[in-house]
Amino acid sequence: MSPRRTRILRPTALLLLLLLLTIAILIIPLYYHRHYDDRDKSFKAPWSQAKDQQRIFRPQHMVKAPMVQPLESSPPEQANAIPDRAHFVYMMSQPEAELGLEFSQALCVFAARYYWRPRQMFLHTNAVDDAIARARNGQSGKWSRLVLGLPEMTVHRVELPIKADNGVEIRKMEHKSDFVRVKAVRDYGGVYLDFDAHLLRDIRPLLRAGFNAVGGRQANELLVSGSFMAKKSATLVNWWYEEMHRVFDGRWTTHSNELMTRIGTSLVPHAGEMLILDRAALAPGGWSKPDCRTLFQSHDYSHPSWLQDYSDTYVLHAFSPRRFHYRIKGFSDITPRYVLSNRSNFALAVFPVAKYMLDQGLIDVDDSHLGI
């Protein structure tokens, strides 16, 4: 039996193999570099020309760039879907006072129009008729006039909740808003959005996913009550509104996030009742000082290591640092100039909406956050 001979590559074949490897090493990085550059241009990122730029891989780069143009009209509704209806709540301790919205609140409303284009929008408020009229004609500031002047916006007057059915007085305005928002979604169906909950993409796929209600986790693993979706009289909102009157004790989240979490979790085993999304979907950040710094701090463009990836976020709940009196570098208020400067994660996330408003002549770079 003859010994087995070892095959040795000829010099020509070896040179050809080395040449192919060299080409692959040079061409592949150039392809991905060009691919990422084209993708980033849609965001108009100021650091795209930086010499020492750092790239963050996003899976959607391998698919296609997301649609960043505003919807021209509302697509047809589906019979068994959560309604294309947005709900906002603005409760006032003095109903006759000015209904003065800020730029950030107008930006939130226009984000819903830009990405989702709901057929109807409701502003639930206890403001008196005169206050609503002043807001519509601009006496309460530019941002109130813009929001209340939208053709799809309906102002729905509600009574200020005073006491829960268990007899406990409802003192905090935030708690009064909790009761109003759940009742609104229970009675009409649709999507509730806090005025600091900014859409980053179309949420219609969630509404048409086949569930009666949709919610998401927040920083402490409870469900976020600042943005949720449900059909009219869905089990979640029916049960939630009934029980919140029974369990309300004046504590911050007993009747809201905690109760919603218990009810929502119990409904998941029942087919089609409840979809619970992970934290990234509706509330990727939090309310701590580090969270607020990550979202709102202004930065130098040359080293974008601070850049956050919101590829899997539908709603960015931007908890304000003002509530806790946090001092954040380069931030005081959300103004057109702050957003259009593109120097923070928040600004980059909401930039397409602000730029659209600027192009439409709705805002000016020098407008104040109060619009007066």
Largest sheet: 7 strands, mixed
CATH topology of the domain at 85-282: Spore Coat Polysaccharide Biosynthesis Protein SpsA, Chain A
End-to-end Cα distance:
98 Å
Question: Which CATH architecture of the domain at 85-282 would you pick?
Answer: Alpha-Beta Complex
- The total beta strand count reads 9
**Gross geometry:** globular
Oligomer: single chain
Q: From the alpha-carbon coordinates, what is the Rg to the nearest angstrom?
A: 25 Å
Mean pLDDT: 86
Key features of this structure:
372 residues, Glycosyl transferase, disordered N terminus, seven-stranded mixed β-sheet, single chain, Nucleotide-diphossugar_trans, transmembrane, two-stranded antiparallel ribbon, alpha/beta, Spore Coat Polysaccharide Biosynthesis Protein SpsA, Chain A
How are the secondary structure elements laid out?
Elements: H1 11-41, E1 85-90, H2 103-115, E2 120-125, H3 129-136, H4 142-148, E3 153-157, H5 173-188, E4 190-193, E5 197-199, H6 204-207, E6 213-216, E7 227-230, H7 235-247, H8 254-267, E8 275-277, H9 279-282, H10 289-296, E9 315-317, H11 336-340, H12 345-359
Parallel strand pairs: 1-2, 1-4, 2-3, 6-8
Antiparallel strand pairs: 4-7, 5-9, 6-7
Question: Summary?
Answer:
This protein is an alpha/beta fold and 372 residues long. The chain has twelve helices and nine strands.
